[in-house]
Amino acid sequence: MDLDAVTKQSVLHAKPDGLILQYGTAGFRTKAEHLDHVMFRMGLLAVLRSKQTKSTIGVMVTASHNPEEDNGVKLVDPLGEMLAASWEEHATCLANAEEQHLPRVLVDISEKAAVDLHQDAFVVIGRDTRPSSERLSQSVIDGVTVLGGQFYDYGLLTTPQLHYMVFCRNSNGQYGKATVEGYYQKLSSAFVELTKQAFCRGDDHRTLKVDCANGIGALKLAEMKHYFSPGLSVQLFNDGTKGKLNHLCGADFVKSHQKPPQGIEMRANERCCSFDGDADRIVYYYHDADGQFHLIDGDKIATLISSFLKELLLEIGDGLSLGVVQTAYANGSSTRYLEEVMKVPVYCTKTGVKHLHHKAQEFDIGVYFEANGHGTVLFSKAAETKIKQLAKESEDEKRKAAKMLENIIDLFNQTIGDAISDMLVIEAILALKGLTVQQWDALYTDLPNRQLKVKVADRQVISTTDAERQVVKPPGLQEAINDLVKKYRLSRAFVRPSGTEDIVRVYAEADSQENTDSLAYEVSLAVFQLAGGIGERPQRALLENGLWFSSFKSLLGKAVE
Ligand code: 16G
Ligand code: MG
């Protein structure tokens, strides 16, 4: 390591005095103007991680659904997964080191992580469409090169595309070709193969409206749509030609406001979906004939996908295990439906893709989705081998099912939730099953739910257990929540410190919207009182024509990323 060169270069990417940032649930994220030093240092760190793992590492410059002025960065590990937890700590130390301590921190990390400094390093870089992203990814490149790493800059990519590239490279192309073209071809040919049967039946005029959040998803979907167009025609809205990124549109807006994005024309019963700003989340929705809005979130996506997979697994009859992984935010109706009607085992993990992903790896086939629309399906090596073998050898119906599963394996981006890939899977299933969006929605009825946020002096005073469903500290808070929950039917509530914002999130559900809102309010008050609330006390809401008034409105929880 040429530490002198690092010191010299670092001056050009100087850290603002006193600025402390945390590698959060999905990397660093804040105002773009504060991130130059972080980008440079993540370039350095990616080189060390690449040397240590003897693999290609990815660096993605994006702040997902955050406002356009923000930016962020996350590292991608060799199998296309999110960065290992122990390295998140190194990332935080490196980002926060004062200029003069930078060389020492680099040496410390190398020693602690037993990095072989003689090893070559290779880093791939992708970025979203934010105005600041190009400059910031150049800072990543500066960090990579000063430590002698090689790099390939993919330029504009969705987050899941970068994850895909990393895995392709580290699997020597076995997972696919590490190019954008390779990604389009792999997914599209799986989609076309899979849907052949449905489209032969004459169901060949499927259209879907896609709100692209004015983000990178628009560029990539516009490039890709010709590859699968005879089967599915997508109409792009909020494609970035005029609107602002994530402003009044995108998956996060739709999920948290439970209303359609601006800039999309919806006719009754028409299927629509929204991506988030870096296209790793998707939600569906429609207006019914009475003009009522219906949201189909990650829970219902997981349900559709798992019921389709379960049917195919029964047909091949090979005893492969299927499990569904959710978080505490999953609507109680979805969990009940999966467990009681579909008889599928359901597991709950902490919030954040990496937790769900790791749990899903325990099954032959692991379906994971957060309610907010982040998710995918993982197939174990053994399951994949078995399915491939059955697709070749078995007879008729069994072979047909195995072939479908084979294409489904290729259609999913197994490195991370991917809005484009999930969209194609959903469209294929709806076409094959001949399901309308209303029939899909009618699988079960969501329990009314409400998310709120509460400001406290230090959100770390709250610690949780049982996949964030129970509070351990401060004393008395869980007991208070238990007592409040008892007052309502079909009710559930939990609180957790956010991993991305300086607030505590409150979630409640119950048998009616009114009861849900009362429960959410009462739990917020308990948090405010027992966990050091600051600012204005939560106020009971006034609900009129579906609108929230008073300061309660400002507490309305932003759906998590
Ligand atoms: C992140 C996570 C998302 C999670 C959200 C929770 C990834 C790629 N993203 O952005 O999965 O739902 O954080 O945010 O892991 P919160 O801690 O503020 O509720
Ligand atoms: Mg995202």
Automatic annotation (TrEMBL):
Coiled-coil boundaries: 380-407
InterPro entries: A-D-PHexomutase_a/b/a-I (IPR005844), A-D-PHexomutase_a/b/a-I/II/III (IPR016055), A-D-PHexomutase_C (IPR005843), A-D-PHexomutase_C_sf (IPR036900), A-D-PHexomutase_CS (IPR016066), AMG1_II (IPR049023), AMG1_III (IPR049022), PAGM (IPR016657)
Alphabetical list of Pfam families matching this protein: AMG1_II, AMG1_III, PGM_PMM_I, PGM_PMM_IV
UniProt cofactor note: Binds 1 Mg(2+) ion per subunit.
Domain of life from the UniProt record: Eukaryota
Domain Phosphoacetylglucosamine mutase AMG1 per the UniProt entry, residue ranges: 178-283, 297-434
Cofactor requirement: Mg(2+)
Name of the protein described by the UniProt record: Phosphoacetylglucosamine mutase
Family indicated by similarity: Belongs to the phosphohexose mutase family.
Pathway: Nucleotide-sugar biosynthesis; UDP-N-acetyl-alpha-D-glucosamine biosynthesis; N-acetyl-alpha-D-glucosamine 1-phosphate from alpha-D-glucosamine 6-phosphate (route I): step 2/2
Binding-site positions, Mg(2+): S64, D276, D278, D280
Domain Alpha-D-phosphohexomutase C-terminal: 471-523
EC number: 5.4.2.3
Residues annotated as binding substrate: E370, A371, N372, R496, P497, S498, G499, T500, R505
GO molecular function annotation: magnesium ion binding; phosphoacetylglucosamine mutase activity
Gene3D superfamilies recorded: Alpha-D-Glucose-1,6-Bisphosphate, subunit A, domain 3 (3.40.120.10), Alpha-D-phosphohexomutase, C-terminal domain (3.30.310.50)
GO biological process: carbohydrate metabolic process; hemopoiesis; UDP-N-acetylglucosamine biosynthetic process
Function: Catalyzes the conversion of GlcNAc-6-P into GlcNAc-1-P during the synthesis of uridine diphosphate/UDP-GlcNAc, a sugar nucleotide critical to multiple glycosylation pathways including protein N- and O-glycosylation.
Presence of keyword Cell membrane: no
Keywords (A to Z) from UniProt: Acetylation, Carbohydrate metabolism, Coiled coil, Isomerase, Magnesium, Metal-binding, Phosphoprotein
Catalytic activity: N-acetyl-alpha-D-glucosamine 1-phosphate = N-acetyl-D-glucosamine 6-phosphate
Protein encoded by which gene: PGM3
Domain Alpha-D-phosphohexomutase alpha/beta/alpha residues, every copy: 51-90, 118-169
Record flagged with keyword Transmembrane helix: no
Active site positions, chain numbering: S64
Organism encoding this protein: Bos indicus x Bos taurus
